[in-house]
Specification:
It contains 13 helices and 11 strands. By secondary structure, the protein is of the alpha+beta class. The N terminus is likely disordered.
């Protein structure tokens, strides 16, 4: 007798032990490579240059050590003008165009605007594509002959699911998909191939936690507030830079006036020396008078040199602020201030300026925007303490056929439709984390309210202090003018007394010194009065003068 042929099931391939070991170790090898690999950081400066401080012999300085840099040095002109006359408006325009601090600050609003666009992009629809291939080989309940081995059920399928996911500003989303699949199934009863073509619409909407635009649009609203905060900081920086430029301008003007006073003092001392020598030659004065007068000339020359140094320092301050590529700090160009400071007294209504300060000071506005932002965060934190209740609905049109066209045709007839409605509930037990965040948000809001009140008081104090400084500077101007008139008469009297032999050169020089000091005090008081006006305008959140300044963020 012949024995029946032996049939073997289709799933006879068994991996070797080495194969199984490699398959098990491979994921760990890949993870180790991903974690362990590291690229070297390219160093721009050698480490020794960062950790060693070199000494320098000023009599014989070494050549500078060059280092690699990606920075582009600005082009310098071949020559610089000997003098440049600037009025205050010229200075402000150059500061707005070239000041380095402003160039940095004016980029922030553009960056913040990009943050708004990024947050709003969260509500853009997303195209999705899901594709899968599956091959299964499972035992069935049917046994094979006398061997008792199960016969395999083989299943092979491939699916493609394109779709669109639409986020909702209410916190939920809508998803539309059109899955298409081919499935081949081999079983003891035969082979079967089917095609499916469906159209599915699903909606998911939270009802409590995560529901509403306050939560869904929180990131967008916060980004919009932060963008306004960045513009407030940029405007504050523009106001600060213009006020600093105004101060530098009038300090340079005061330094030039002080230099003119010192030069006039030198001329007085030289005239006294000439008188002393003339009287000495005529025998009407002792030789000591010429020596005393020469000492006075030397003192006046030293004062002129000091004033010249101060003018150079003030010029560099102004050049640094305007940052004109054609007028660098090291340029020898002499800056001439052509604007005249008004010499009239200004009557200021302090209460009106305080009201302006409350409306114009950007530090106060930024705090108010922070309070609005914290209100949004507080509402979101309170919403997070609620239970999670999600409403879910799915609408599905089914299509099935022996080929793809049959499946599409069945689906287009809308004969086979599924509806699924669900409710998913999630209630934290205790919910301490969400409650702690909510309490913290309440405390942060109280902090901001206290900060806002403190800034109100600080702004009022700054306006009042600037107003008092303005009044004090005007009183000093009156006093200095009186001192100048008195000392001018005193110098004339001492000079006549000297020519009559009744006074010495020392007494004449002392009178001249008091006159120069009084004239310098007048120059300084006038400069302080102008600076006090700038400070008062800045305390009110504005710039001095009638000209309005408009700035734009840098792109």
């Amino acid at each position: 007798m012949h024995s029946p042929p032996t049939q073997t099931p289709s799933h006879t391939h068994t991996p070797s032990p080495i194969h199984r070991a490699l398959l098990g170790v491979a994921p760990f090898i890949l993870l180790s490579l991903a974690v362990g690999c590291r690229t070297e950081t390219p160093w721009i400066v050698p480490q020794d240059s960062l950790r060693q401080i070199q000494g320098i012999d000023l009599n014989n300085p070494p050549a500078p050590i060059a280092r690699s840099s990606t920075l582009v040095e600005p082009e310098q002109p071949a020559s610089f003008p000997a003098e440049l006359s600037l009025n205050l408006n010229d200075v402000r325009q150059r500061v707005l165009a070239n000041n380095l601090d402003l160039q940095v600050a004016l980029i922030d609003p553009t960056i913040a605007q990009l943050g708004v666009e990024e947050a709003d992009a969260a509500f853009e629809s997303v195209f999705t594509l899901d594709t899968n291939y599956f091959k299964g080989d499972q035992p069935s309940g049917t046994r094979l002959g006398d061997t008792g081995l199960p016969i395999a059920n083989q299943n092979e399928s491939i699916s493609l699911t394109p779709g669109v996911r639409v986020p909702l500003r209410t916190g939920g989303f809508i998803s539309i998909s059109a899955p298409v699949a081919r499935q081949e199934f081999n079983s003891p009863t035969g082979e079967n191939i089917t095609y499916t073509s469906d159209l599915a619409l699903s909606v998911s909407q939270p009802l409590l936690r995560g529901a509403g635009s306050d939560v869904a649009e929180l990131r967008l609203k916060v980004a919009e507030i932060q963008q306004q905060r960045s513009e407030a900081r940029a405007r504050l920086e523009v106001t600060r830079a213009l006020a600093e430029a105004d101060r530098a301008y009038w300090r340079l003007a005061a330094a030039r006036d002080a230099l003119a006073v010192r030069v006039a003092g030198l001329r007085l001392a030289e005239a006294q020396l000439e008188r002393a020598r003339r009287l000495e030659r005529a025998g009407a004065a002792a030789g000591i008078e010429s020596v005393r007068a020469e000492a006075g000339v030397a003192d006046a020359q030293e004062a002129v040199l000091s004033s010249e140094i101060l003018v150079r320092l003030r010029q560099r301050d102004l050049k640094r602020l305007i940052n004109d590529p054609l007028l660098p700090v090291q340029s020898p160009t002499i800056l001439i201030t052509s604007s005249d400071a008004p010499a009239m007294r200004i009557d200021v209504t302090v209460d009106l300026l305080i009201a302006h300060a409350h409306a114009q000071r950007m530090e106060l506005l930024e705090t108010e925007l922070q309070i609005v932002e914290q209100d949004l965060n507080q509402r979101a934190a309170r919403n997070a303490t609620l239970p999670l209740v999600n409403f879910e609905y799915t609408y599905n049109i089914n299509g099935l056929g022996a080929d793809l066209s049959d499946a599409v045709s069945v689906a287009s007839d809308h004969d086979f439709i599924d509806h699924r409605v669900g409710l998913r509930v999630e209630i934290p037990l205790g919910n301490r984390e969400a409650r702690a965040r909510y309490r913290a948000s309440l405390l942060r809001r109280l902090q901001l309210l206290s900060t806002h009140e403190g800034r109100l008081q600080q702004i009022q104090k700054e306006v009042l202090d600037a107003h008092d400084q303005l009044e004090s500077s005007w009183q000093r101007i009156d006093a200095a003018r009186t001192r100048v008139r008195v000392n001018e008469r005193l110098v004339d009297a001492e000079t006549r007394q000297f020519e009559q032999g009744l006074r010495t050169s020392t007494e004449v020089l002392e009178a001249q010194t008091r006159l120069i000091d009084a004239q310098n005090a007048l120059v300084q008081a006038q400069a302080d009065y102008q600076l006090a006006q700038i400070d008062l305008a800045y305390a009110a959140g504005m710039t001095l003068g009638h000209t309005q300044t408009t700035w734009q963020p840098r792109k």
